[in-house]
Specification:
The chain has a single domain, classed as P-loop containing nucleotide triphosphate hydrolases (Rossmann fold). It contains nine helices and seven strands; from the N terminus they run βααβββααβαβααβαα. The longest helix has 17 residues.
Length: 215
């Protein structure tokens, strides 16, 4: 999370940014154009026009003017996005876009390298995770597509985690100063309240408070 001076009262003014959707949108472009990953260059990426729109509070991704948001969460795109996001040229292409966005406005930014690479000085960092089966079940509900089995989605999740945590550039890892939150047995409301507790604690800048909350 990145905000100039966050407070519970000011959270409604924050812009939510899912950076994974940026990589997935680039991946859709790569797939559509038939580009080979080992041939991706800055020149090719410059032909892609990415835009973000908020519609009823939901982030929508536009690729060359077309809304491709509904294509971004399939296992196929997830797998290819994990591979393409490991490319330095892709990460450099999107890094400045994400940082510029956080400079222009206060944001809640989600992604696998936000606290370590994109916004290392963020006001609040939360490393959020859940047990594997819970994550696979949540993705199944998100996809809502009978073509995908639970085992397929679960395996794809494992493969993506492996790829992202072992890549050389900006690997998936918890920042040293991030709060850890396992949401497996939590409702959405409970997760929101826990993060607000982290925020309250962070503003108090009390180490003991942080340690107690993370238990």
């Amino acid at each position: 999370m990145q905000e100039k001076r966050p407070s519970r009262r000011g959270l409604q003014s924050l812009v939510y940014v899912d950076t994974g959707a940026f990589y997935r949108t680039v991946t859709v472009a790569i797939q559509r154009n038939g580009w080979k990953l080992d041939n991706i260059s800055e020149e090719l990426l410059q032909t892609i026009k990415l835009d973000v729109q908020l519609m009823d509070g939901v982030q929508r991704m536009l690729l060359n003017g077309e809304d491709v948001t509904d294509l971004l969460r399939t296992p196929e795109i997830s797998k290819l996005a994990s591979d393409s996001s490991a490319l330095p040229v892709v990460r450099i292409f999107l890094l400045k876009t994400q940082q510029d966005l956080a400079q222009r406005t206060s944001v809640i930014m989600e992604g696998r390298d936000i606290g370590t690479v994109v916004l290392p000085d963020a006001t609040l960092k939360v490393f959020m995770t859940a047990d594997l089966d819970v994550r696979a079940d949540r993705r199944m509900k998100e996809l809502n597509d009978s073509r995908y089995t639970f085992e397929y989605v679960r395996s794809a999740t494992v493969a993506r985690d492996q790829n992202d945590s072992t890549r050389k550039i900006a690997p998936l890892q918890q920042a040293d100063d991030a709060y850890y939150l396992n949401t497996s047995k939590m409702s959405l409301e409970e997760v929101e309240e826990r993060i607000l507790e982290f925020l309250d604690c962070q503003l108090e800048t009390t180490r003991l408070c942080k340690g107690v909350l993370c238990k």
